[in-house]
Structures are given as C-alpha cells and as structure tokens.
C-alpha cells in the first residue's frame, strides 16, 4: 500500500493542476499595475492550468467593472491560452452571488468561490448562510461548480454540515492552508475534518500568532512560516481513489496579509462572530510602492517554483 501511495502521489504531483491566484498580485492590482488580462499572460507563460480571479481585482479595471465586450475579450483570451477561469467573491448573499455568477458566465468560467461574512451569534450566522445556500441551490445544474471557503471564522465541522445539508451536488469546500488558524483550529486537524468535501485549494504559508485564547495569522513567503505545507500538499494530492479529488490548487502567496483570532478556547456553544471587511493587505508607504510591487511579483513567481519543487520531490521519492 505504501508503494502504491508513493506511485499515486508521484503521478498526481506530475500533473498537479496549478492556478495563478490574483491575490498573489494583490498590491499590484490595487494600484492597477497588474490587471485581470495580465494574469492570463502570466499563467500562460508559467504553464499553469488556469487563473483564480476575484470580481474586484484590478479596481476600476476589474471584471466587475468591465462591460460586455471587455468580458467577452477576456473570455476569448483565456480560451486562446487554453486557461480555465475561476471566479471568486467575498460574501454569500443573493446580490453578491448573482453578480459573481453573471461574471462567471460572461468570462466562460467554470467555478465560483464564495465565503460568508456575517456578524452575530454563531447559530444565527449559520442560519443566514444556510438561507444563502438554499437560494444558490437553484443554480446547481447551471454548469458551474461552487466552493465555499473556510475563511477564518467558521470551524471545519460547521462548514461540512452546511455543505452536507445543502444537498447540492455542485457545492464543495475550498481548503485554505491557513484560514483555519483564526477559527482556533490546527491545519492538519482541519484538513482531516474537511477532506471528504475538498475539491479546491488555496496554497499559502503563514506564521501563527497566539492571541489570548485564540490564534491569528500573518501570511508570509512559502517555506518561511509555521504551516506543514509539504504534509498538507501530499494529503490533498492523495485525496480521491480512482481519480484526484482536488482539481484546482490556487497559488495564493500573500505576504504580510494579517487576520486576527475569531474563535477561542472559552467561547461556549454559541459565540459572537464579529463583522469583518473583505481580505486586504496594507498598502506600502508611497516612497516604497515601486519596490514593494516588484517584490510582490518576485514572491508570486517564487511560490510557483517552491510548489513545483515539492512536487518534484514527491516524484523523486516514488
């Protein structure tokens, strides 16, 4: 069995479906130095399978702000490069999802990722999310797949229950390498709980920060943090018996992104979930902008090599 797993791991590592993630270029996109179409160029140059793009990435030049012709041009460029497109958004309400689905259809995307952002007691928050997913279920046969991401406030078992109760065949979980930390969970334990439902991944590294009876995290360069990246990648590649269960690994290098603790050891059965804004990384001081944007590009490309080197290691160890 061990030899079989090594061979299966090697085969899947050779063919890992890597996606360029727009957040790896977050600051460049905030300053509109890198735009959605530029991500297609980079993904093509790096021989990746596709791109994961948030509807707001690129500010005034984002997919959300494009007209029909611009969205069609983006779709054609992705098609010409033979790149798969995944759309991401940062809420789960009807209005937000409707817009993301519109953009997904217009760009020829195959998948939409979302995560909920509600304030309130946990049980009330879960009820709101369940209602959002019940509305989304009407799109279960629209040709798109949907993923809900564990995004710092919900715990793994809560996310699994939401997906299982939805009865949607095209809703699954997107596993982020670090976001469980803020929900007071450890990476490998969270991966074990969510593993039956994981189909997509965000790869990043982070430093874990103890905050009272919980944990925050600060994202950092891959290989420089506290996360068991090699073990998580190996486990994710091996999910699925006859074929790989995970079909998209997003390269989400996000150096200096910080998120505080949201869940705590002594919180009780129905804790208060605070409101939070969508994810962002602080902008550099004006005199440091050019250097920081160049550094961000370097980090994004370095992560691609880091993950490919890990995959080469799996191949060599078969």
Automatic annotation (TrEMBL):
Q: Where is the Xylose isomerase-like TIM barrel domain?
A: 59-240
One Pfam family per UniProt:
AP_endonuc_2
Q: Which SUPFAM superfamilies match?
A: Xylose isomerase-like (SSF51658)
What InterPro entries does this protein's entry cite?
A: IolE/XylAMocC-like, Xyl_isomerase-like_sf, Xyl_isomerase-like_TIM-brl
Protein name, entry field: Xylose isomerase-like TIM barrel domain-containing protein
Q: Which organism is it from?
A: Citrobacter amalonaticus
């Amino acid at each position: 069995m061990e030899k079989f797993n090594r061979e299966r791991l090697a085969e899947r590592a050779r063919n890992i479906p890597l996606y360029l993630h727009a957040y790896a270029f977050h600051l460049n996109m905030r300053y509109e130095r890198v735009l959605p179409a530029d991500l297609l160029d980079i993904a093509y140059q790096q021989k990746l399978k596709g791109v994961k793009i948030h509807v707001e990435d690129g500010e005034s030049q984002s997919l959300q702000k494009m007209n029909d012709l611009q969205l069609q041009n983006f779709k054609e460029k992705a098609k010409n490069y033979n790149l798969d497109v995944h759309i991401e958004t940062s809420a789960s309400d009807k209005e937000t999802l409707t817009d993301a689905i519109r953009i997904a259809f217009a760009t020829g995307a195959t998948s939409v990722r979302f995560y909920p952002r509600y304030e309130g007691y946990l049980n009330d928050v879960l009820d709101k999310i369940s209602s959002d997913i019940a509305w989304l279920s009407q799109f279960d046969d629209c040709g798109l797949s949907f993923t809900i991401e564990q995004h710092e406030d919900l715990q793994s078992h809560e996310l699994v229950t939401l997906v299982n109760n939805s009865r949607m065949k095209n809703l699954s979980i997107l596993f982020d390498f670090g976001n469980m930390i803020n929900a007071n969970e450890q990476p490998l334990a969270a991966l074990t709980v969510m593993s039956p439902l994981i189909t997509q991944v965000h790869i990043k590294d982070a430093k874990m920060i103890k905050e009272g009876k919980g944990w925050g995290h600060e994202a950092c360069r891959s290989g420089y943090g506290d996360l068991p990246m090699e073990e998580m990648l190996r486990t994710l590649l091996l999910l699925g018996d006859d074929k790989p269960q995970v079909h998209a690994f997003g390269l989400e290098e996000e150096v200096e992104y910080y998120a505080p603790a949201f869940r705590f050891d002594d919180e009780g059965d129905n804790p208060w979930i605070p409101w939070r804004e969508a994810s962002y990384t602080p902008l550099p001081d004006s005199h440091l902008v050019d250097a920081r944007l160049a550094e961000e590009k370097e980090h994004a490309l370095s992560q691609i090599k880091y993950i490919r080197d890990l995959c080469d290691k799996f191949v060599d160890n078969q």
